[in-house]
């Protein structure tokens, strides 16, 4: 039960990132590039302070940073710039589709093959997510935006897989954010991500970076060693659904039959993938 609650809390934190980003960008309080850079900066400062308070230090020189910080930079860069030209729903499908394929493929190659019910559950959950998020009307896909979101998916899958072997979740996450900050910032701003930030934009970006990203990602690294790669991949399909539910509660958006029925399919698929069968 404790693992379930911590995993659920992590997914809520991930969804909150999406809501905070939307609140800032859609209201004009922040541009995507500025929001992303401040988000990473706030996460790095918060986590470094927490590690220092407990008498530790960030393992910046560890070889693990090549994968952890590199993957985080790739994710932040791709995610922040892809949405400049890509529909939000389609972007989420590309992101989570690539994450699923990458994590299932890597786990199979490395000898941790998903069980048939886990693969089936993931497929059902993704089908439900596609039903919810598929754009209405004519489908127009910007190749550049799609490629950037695919890179973001590869980055997040690598970041998640790397977290399974980190000995100190908090310090590792802090080090990843710190090393990723200059790389992410330079890449986003070089491609015209934009900086325009108002006071409320800074506040939302700092909240996202310090709490729902920094602490949320540290919590993710804390629970990952207890989850199989296939389960870790599948539970993340709940994030867009939680974000949509948050939009209904916080942003006054409406819930239609498509959302409700699709949510049932997503949750059913996740339940199939994560529930263990009891021996008779």
From TrEMBL:
<keyword id="KW-0812">Transmembrane</keyword>
<dbReference type="Pfam" id="PF00892">
    <property type="entry name" value="EamA"/>
</dbReference>
<feature type="transmembrane region" description="Helical">
    <location>
        <begin position="231"/>
        <end position="251"/>
    </location>
</feature>
<feature type="domain" description="EamA">
    <location>
        <begin position="145"/>
        <end position="274"/>
    </location>
</feature>
<keyword id="KW-0472">Membrane</keyword>
<feature type="transmembrane region" description="Helical">
    <location>
        <begin position="65"/>
        <end position="84"/>
    </location>
</feature>
<protein>
    <recommendedName>
        <fullName>EamA domain-containing protein</fullName>
    </recommendedName>
</protein>
<dbReference type="InterPro" id="IPR000620">
    <property type="entry name" value="EamA_dom"/>
</dbReference>
<feature type="transmembrane region" description="Helical">
    <location>
        <begin position="169"/>
        <end position="193"/>
    </location>
</feature>
<feature type="transmembrane region" description="Helical">
    <location>
        <begin position="257"/>
        <end position="275"/>
    </location>
</feature>
<feature type="transmembrane region" description="Helical">
    <location>
        <begin position="143"/>
        <end position="162"/>
    </location>
</feature>
<feature type="transmembrane region" description="Helical">
    <location>
        <begin position="90"/>
        <end position="112"/>
    </location>
</feature>
<feature type="transmembrane region" description="Helical">
    <location>
        <begin position="34"/>
        <end position="53"/>
    </location>
</feature>
<dbReference type="GO" id="GO:0016020">
    <property type="term" value="C:membrane"/>
</dbReference>
<dbReference type="InterPro" id="IPR050638">
    <property type="entry name" value="AA-Vitamin_Transporters"/>
</dbReference>
<keyword id="KW-1133">Transmembrane helix</keyword>
<feature type="transmembrane region" description="Helical">
    <location>
        <begin position="199"/>
        <end position="219"/>
    </location>
</feature>
<dbReference type="InterPro" id="IPR037185">
    <property type="entry name" value="EmrE-like"/>
</dbReference>
<feature type="transmembrane region" description="Helical">
    <location>
        <begin position="119"/>
        <end position="137"/>
    </location>
</feature>
